[in-house]
Amino acid sequence: MDDRNKTDGQKGSGTPEISDAELSGRLEGLGAELKKVRAERKMDEVSSVADRTSTSAGMALAFRLGAEFVAGVLVGAGLGWGFDRLLGTTPWGFIVFLLLGFGASIMNMMRAAGETGRKTPS
User: How many other CB atoms sit within 10 Å of the CB of residue 80?
Assistant: First the structure.
């Protein structure tokens, strides 16, 4: 029983007496681990915010491209229908301007997608 560490004066407690230096060392170690965990959590939060930002930016671009496509086709169809009514060339004006609207909307989509490809994140 002599090989036991000193106790705080109570027999049979079995808890060794810990010096202030040991406690300070443990506290510093726990503080360092806590800083490390907090830094990891902060990095996770930053990456999740960046993920949400890129997702919302992608959705905004998709809606913009979709709206430009639909608008181009509808404007072409409307102009073709109008010319057909004025000139009496029924379906040809509609067909020609519908195809022109489709081509214009594809060009607008490619231009808009090319602009976003050249931007660098700040």
Answer: 22
